[in-house]
Amino acid sequence: MKENHYESVIIINAALEDTQIEDTVKKVENFITNNGGKITDIEKWGRKRLAYPIKKSKSGFYVIYRFTAPAEMIKKLERMYKLDETIYRFLTIKLTKKDLEHLKKKLAEKKPEESEKSESSPEPKSEEAVVAEGQSEQ
């Protein structure tokens, strides 16, 4: 049985509490793994304004799943999306080799930027240092 690489984007009702959104994210994650898929990446974009209202809502919580799975599982996954009332919209696409190479390159560029940010961020100052700076300025 051949497994393909997929990317699935879902928009969850942003009016829900964070715990409810996290439950929906975990529910989808468990569904994919329990039906023969292997998740390679989950990207949570968070709450974003929608281009047009969906079910009278102006914002949604975006989540992107990247995974490998047998082709038969995608129909089951999309059926689960349709039945879940917290999920407004979804889109699942099959990734090509070119797409996978682009993702690897994007992740490679992203990792050095994160390490530079952590190295260049100043150490938090102690309370005494802040007080001493305030006194020297006066």
Q: What can you tell me about this protein's structure?
A:
- The chain is an alpha+beta fold and 138 residues long.
- It has four helices and four strands; from the N terminus they run βαββαβαα.
- Residues 129-138 have low confidence and may be disordered.
Features:
138 residues, alpha+beta, Alpha-Beta Plaits, 4 strands, globular, disordered C terminus
**Quaternary form:** single chain
How is the largest sheet built, in terms of strand order?
Answer: 2-3-1-4
Share of helix among residues? 40-55%
Q: What name does CATH use for the topology?
A: Alpha-Beta Plaits
CATH homologous superfamily descriptor: Ribosomal protein S6/Translation elongation factor EF1B
Intertermini distance? 74 Å
The total tally of domains equals: 1
The CATH class name reads: Alpha Beta
Mean pLDDT figure? 82
Q: Spell the H/E element sequence.
A: EHEEHEHH
Strand content: 35-45%
CATH architecture: 2-Layer Sandwich
List unreliable stretches of 5+ residues: 129-138
β-strand number: 4
What general outline do the C-alpha atoms trace?
globular
